[in-house]
Amino acid sequence: MSSLSAKIQDVFNEPACDKNRGKDAKARKEGCSKPLTPGATAGGCAFDGAKIVLQPITDVAHLVHAPLACEGNSWDNRGAASSRATLWRTSFTTDLTELDVVMGQGERKLFKAIREIKETYAPPAIFVYSTCVTALIGDDIEAVCKRAGEKFGLAVVPVNAPGLAGSKNLGNKLAGEALLDHVIGTVEPDDAGPYDINILGEFNLSGEFWLVKPLLDRLGIRVRACIPGDARYLDVASAHRARAAMMVCSTALINLARKMEERWDIPFFEGSFYGITDTSEALRNIAELLVRKGADPEILPRTETLIAQEEAIAWKKLEAYRRRLEGKRVLLNTGGVKSWSVVHALMEIGMEIVGTSVKKSTVEDKERIKQLLKDDNHMFEQMAARDLYVMLSDHKADIMLSGGRTQFIALKAKTPWLDINQERQHPYAGYDGMVELVRQIDLAIHNPIWRQVREPAPWDCQPAVKDELGNTKSETATLHAVQEFAGTAADDFDKR
Amino acid sequence: MARILSQTKSAAVNPLKSSQPLGAALAFLGVEGAMPLFHGSQGCTSFALVLFVRHFKEAIPLQTTAMDEVTTILGGADNLEEAILNLKTRTKPKLIGVCTTALVETRGEDCAGDIADIKLKRAEEIAGTEVVLANTPDFDGAIEDGWAKAVTAMIEGITRPGEQARQPKKIAILPGWNLTVADIEHLREMVESFGLKPVILPDVSGSLDGTVPDRWVTTTYGGASVEDIRELGKAAQCIAIGEHMRRPAEVLWRLTGVPYVLFQSLTGLKGADRFVSLLSTISGAAVPAGVRRRRAQLQDALLDGHFHFGGKKIAIAAEPDQLYQLATFFTGMGSEIAAAVATTDMSKILEKVPAESVQIGDLGDLEALAASADLLVTHSHGRQAAERLGIPLMRVGFPIFDRLGSQHKLTILYQGTRDLVFEVANIFQAYRQAPTPEELDPLRKRETPDGPRSSPLTRH
Q1: What angle do CA A272, A273, A279 make, to 5 degrees?
Q2: Do residue B140 and residue B173 come from a single domain?
């Protein structure tokens, strides 16, 4: 595990990370993982994080070396989309039994498992994930992978990120390290060109990268590798020949972007495809980086033309929602939305931001939020479930945008909610994606169920009717009361 | 008797199992004011939690002792203590159900000893909260085993031991994990209709039935109460449902002398008849008119439904008791079990599954065995296999994450069996293909060596 510790130290010491740069030498050495509180901890482990980053590589067999739970409880659970191969959705695990653990048969079983997968599925590569138990019993997955790769003649990539190493975020970075150590640069493409780029940290959730890629195609820009969304192994293996890169989900793969710049001179910028201004900015940055690396500068005016066209269309589409959404109050409770241009777009059509979590935001992010929101009080580090529930129950927001973790706080408080994290059902990237996000907000807020679920049961709120029914002596009076009651109910119904 | 074929592959392909601690947590969730606690790394809890949420569409109380590299080397007792104390202060649960994971079991931790120490040392702080332990390493068993171990642990840890004055109307019911929320509700109504008073452990119908409480609760809000568990010994009779509930029922009997009757399945006319007769005997009451009516409805459903079942080949992958429950249901309707795959080989019920053989394995095995089947029966993860094979999928068990309302589906007694008959018949009718001349061509058919799937002449 000493090589793993060294790796973790290396990953923690990330010069390209804003937060890290702000720390002194001592704090930096302690790393960025906070100690966990037993009995009060939420979130995934390092293995989870590593698998999230690598699993969307579509034609690879992902083999989890573990007892059942690590893979059995978690497979087929994310909405990344693939345009071609489907092997990534097939789940492979060594499913270690008690006997395997006690007899120390883990490595042998792993080796055999690799052979079975190779013989049955013939994938271009197999990624092997270590986990808590296999790290604890000392299985040397790097050695097994090396041996199996030589013997079977395919890439067998060890991903050394057992859950006990730390958080999901650390796992994201260790996955990037695995790609750097074993995959990227192992294949030389024969078609490298001046308009080749990499997109790093784009997961193609709900296929949303397909809302952006046609724009790049239009500009003649080729995505050499999108890592990991809809990627093939060969794309990733030859990613070192791209001319420039965009890093989308910065906390996840910043080490990958920086080291690719160091090793292969691929400059990168941090950008986002969420929101209109950010999408434009991203296209602009890509074009500029390519020109800096020798592409024909005529791409710059073409990019501007495309941006102008697309922005005009998007703003026009969004304007249609102003009437319905103006003055509606949004609570943002997520660390996932890095893009303040989403906030910008919502405010542009007249929505009000009544609160936002800044737990994962950088200092710069916080500055931008302060400028956007007039009131600092609207920023919070983290809100306890109970407080959030009370806030929503008191109708202090018209909708909450968050991830699945707080979904039921909103729903049980009978408040509209929209998933903007990884389990979401709709694509939100690019110009059309922003319009889709606003459309979904509109649909959520204006769904007729809210009036129905917030209404108490009639016998709880109409004591007059209850008393009347309870006290009535004569039959005709009862009949009258019943008719009256039925009448109001029918009227209510018509109005909807 | 079915032959049990053990697993020979090294790589499990598309797992069928959910882990043992998950099963234990599910049982603890059937207790009011409960907080299940996984003793392992944070990922163990996170994965189980996400899966529960995907299935139930509810906030699920589940916590972790958050073991990391250091505590894994030094030992997890301190983490366990800290977690219990933190949970006690933050959520004031009535029950903390500790489920061990592969991580601490591989270390060989003495969790029972640790918990005994904590209870002694922290008696004052944790007063009013029961702490029970289920040893549930992930490398062993699956949901069924974890569920049964948790129920056993609750009876051993909470139920007052010794013979007690019996309440003649009180019936203890120990349902298997495969009973849905709707099943438990139905079971309660059925028992009550005989004037009996059921105490159900675990009772997910009170906690996982999807309601909207008027305040935010961090533990479960409903289910069997700790007091109910303590007083189980006052029941006149215990009824256990599913072979995996034999052990908890035995333990209750040994502790308190409450006799038990075990039903391996409550699905199907015969099982329902036995159950209703038992209730009638215990209560001395005649079978109520409403129940007789339900029985007649099932008779009619069998008559109307059997056309769709006869000769059909069914491929089922499930936990042992559920496999038995469904396989006997299908063969009871005239279908044939073309493939039976079970999660573990530890249950005696597997020998009684009405199939030639039972493969211990995964959904990869099911897919390989089911090529000629007419229907796949397993949980939502079977969707990929169903798609590739072009065979309809009936979703049962856990997890069901791509359909709503699975917890409200009734599967037992007259009414549940009736509903199952209709569900299956409707799947077949929905997938009915129009006849084609090629398919019916008598000369062409001779050339296929294995014969057609089921006779194309049979139309639904």
Answers
A1: 100
A2: no
DSSP code per residue over A212-275: THHHHHHTT-EEEEEEETT--HHHHHTGGG-SEEEESSHHHHHHHHHHHHHHH---EEE---SS
Cα gap B99→A34, rounded to integer Å: 25
Q: Cβ of B211 under 8 Å from any chain A Cβ?
A: no
Of all residues in chain B, the one with the smallest CA distance to A86 is B384
pLDDT, average across residues B5-11: 95
Interface contact B67-A167, CB threshold 8 A: no
Residues in chain B with CB shorter than 8 Å from the CB of A36 are: 42, 66, 68
Average pLDDT over residues A400-407: 85
B389 three-state secondary structure: helix
Residue that is written with structure tokens 């997968």 in the block = A117
Q: Round to whole Å and give the CA distance between A105 and A96.
A: 9
> What value of ipTM does the predicted structure carry?
0.92
With H, G, I as helix, E, B as strand and everything else as coil, classify residue B197: strand
Provide the CATH number for the domain around residue B218: 3.40.50.1980
The full set of domain ranges for chain A reads 2-32+41-182, 196-313, 327-452, 458-495
Selected for mutation to probe chain B from A119, A164, A409, A450 (highest B CB count within 10 Å) is A164
Task: Check if B261 contacts A (Cβ < 8 Å).
Answer: no
With CB atoms and an 8 Å threshold, state whether A136 touches B72.
yes
Calculate how close chain A gets to B411, using CA atoms only, in Å.
Answer: 25
Q: Using the 8-state DSSP alphabet, how is residue A335 labeled?
A: S
CATH class of the domain defined by A327-452: alpha beta
Residue B268 vs residue A42, higher pLDDT: B268
Residues of B in contact with A93 (CB under 8 A): 11-12, 15
pLDDT tens profile B60-110? 999 999 999 899 989 999 999 999 999 999 999 999 999 999 999 999 999
- A121, containing H or E segment: helix A106-121
pLDDT-derived band at A1 (thresholds 50, 70, 90) equals: very low
B139 shares a domain with B27 = yes
Is there a single domain that holds both residue B340 and residue B422? Answer: yes
Among A45, A115, A453, the residue with its CB nearest the CB of B43 is A45
Is B329 in the same domain as B414? Answer: yes
- Is the residue at B448 inside a domain? no
Range of the domain at B91: 20-158
Residue B211 φ then ψ, to 5°:
-120, 175
Q: Do A45 and B41 touch (CB under 8 A)?
A: yes
- For testing the chain A interface, which of B139, B341, B378 should be mutated: the one with the most A CBs within 10 Å? B139
Task: For residue B2, give Cα distances in angstroms to A88, B326, B348, B349, B437.
Answer: 35, 15, 11, 10, 39
Which residues on A lie below 8 Å from B53 (Cβ)? 404, 407-408
pLDDT for position B316: 98
Global pTM?
0.91
* Residue A98 to residue B213, Cβ atoms within 8 A: no
Q: Do A39 and B37 touch (CB under 8 A)?
A: yes
Q: Is B426 on the interface with A (CB under 8 A)?
A: no
Q: How sure is the predictor about A345, in pLDDT bands with cuts at 50, 70 and 90?
A: confident
Among residues 76-95 of chain B, which lie with CB inside 8 Å of chain A? 79-80, 82-87, 90
In B310-404 the beta strands, taken as DSSP E runs, fall at: 313-318, 336-342, 357-360, 375-378, 393-395
| CATH no. for A2-32+41-182 | 3.40.50.1980
Are A72 and B46 in contact (CB < 8 Å)?
Answer: no
Tally of structural domains, chain B: 3
Inside any domain, residue B235? yes
What average pLDDT does the segment B337-365 reach? 96
List, for residues A14-44, the tens digit of each pLDDT value. Answer: 777 666 666 666 666 556 666 789 998 888 9
pLDDT tens track for A224-233: 999 999 999 9
Closest to A36 (Cβ–Cβ): which among B18, B48, B66? B66
pLDDT at A244 over 60: yes
- B14 has a chain A CB within 8 A of its CB: yes
The CATH fold assigned to A196-313 is Rossmann fold (3.40.50)
